[in-house]
Design goal:
InterPro entries: Mito_inner_translocase_sub, Tim10-like, Tim10-like_dom_sf. It comes from Neurospora crassa (strain ATCC 24698 / 74-OR23-1A / CBS 708.71 / DSM 1257 / FGSC 987). It is a peripheral membrane protein. With 88 residues, the protein is an all-alpha fold. The protein has a single domain, classed as Mitochondrial import inner membrane translocase subunit tim13 like domains (Helix Hairpins, Orthogonal Bundle), CATH 1.10.287.810. 82% of the residues lie in helices and 0% in strands. The two termini are 25 Å apart.
Amino acid sequence: MDGLTAAESRELDQRLQKRQVKEFMSVFGNLVDNCFTACVDDFTSKALSGRESGCISRCVLKSMSTQTRLGERFGELNAAMTAEMQRR
């Protein structure tokens, strides 16, 4: 990074990595909570029923697809904004 010493750059990288891990854990925790709440309703057995298992699979797939598409869309918007700013 410009203007940073090697030590400052390493510290910044470590902080960014920690932040990314925290954000990932938050997204993962929300995914687990949302899919569990939406899909699991029978607590009479240790194992998931076939319906619950299928529901969780669909929920996770849908959530991951949504996150992927959101990331792509934000990237597209960021690229468009960057291009617009460079034209000025």
